[in-house]
TrEMBL record:
Pfam families in the cross-refs: GST_C_2, GST_N_2
InterPro entries: Glutathione-S-Trfase_C_sf, Glutathione_S-Trfase_N, Thioredoxin-like_sf
Protein name: Glutathione S-transferase
CDD domains: GST_C_6 (cd03205), GST_N_3 (cd03049)
Originating species: Aliishimia ponticola
Length: 204
């Protein structure tokens, strides 16, 4: 299997952490390259018509894309139980959706600052994205700590990747303000070997 990959992509990081946590890292060859909405990775369109990473090519089936699909595939392949079953499964999926919503908003902020011409940037748009992130962090801090402090699952991995990306690109915003329980949880979760092995490189 081949994984189209960038070390700075938070969606790729979800997949990489899943590989680490389920012992499948050696089963995947990484195809590294940077991709932007305006300049997708060469050859990626043949694997993912949306031209986004991550994308996972397989010898015995079509390419899988979208981090949620790929993470679910590896969880099923390893029978790791990261999505659990019963009602808890839907809690995990909701947490993952919340985390991906944080990532979506944070990426839009990043693109606005890095890709859009300065004279065309829209400050109100950026602030609206940050409002979503702050609201999601507040909800995690007030409603979800019992789950986050439970057994490892994909919801926790997704939330950690989302918070890590906000730190990586928007650290000055300080998502931790007013979210003491979430900040404490993240500080501990960030010390997992899988998290330490996938920290995005500075300067990229």
């Amino acid at each position: 299997m081949q994984l189209y990959y960038s070390p700075t992509s938070p969606y790729v990081r979800k997949v990489m952490i899943t590989l680490h946590e389920t012992g499948q890292l050696d089963d995947v060859t990484l195809i590294e390259g940077s991709t932007k909405p305006t300049n997708p990775l060469s050859g990626l369109a043949a694997q993912n018509p949306l031209m986004k990473i991550p994308a996972l090519t397989r010898a015995d089936g079509p390419t899988l894309y979208d981090s949620r699909v790929i993470c679910a595939f590896f969880d099923d392949r390893a029978q790791a139980g990261l999505y659990a079953s019963g009602s808890r499964r839907f809690e995990i999926m909701t947490l993952e959706a919340t985390a991906d919503g944080i990532l979506d908003a944070a990426l839009l902020m990043t693109y606005e600052g890095k890709l859009r011409p300065e004279e065309a940037r829209w400050d109100d748009w950026v602030e609206a994205q940050w409002t979503k992130i702050a609201s999601a962090c507040a909800a995690l801090d007030s409603r979800w700590m019992g789950h986050l402090n439970g057994p490892l699952d994909m919801g926790q991995i997704a939330v950690a990747c989302a918070l890590g990306y906000v730190d990586f690109r928007h650290d000055a915003r300080n998502w931790r303000k007013g979210c003491d329980a979430l900040a404490k949880w993240y500080a501990e979760f960030a010390q997992r070997p899988s998290m330490l092995a996938t920290v995005p490189p500075e300067g990229m």
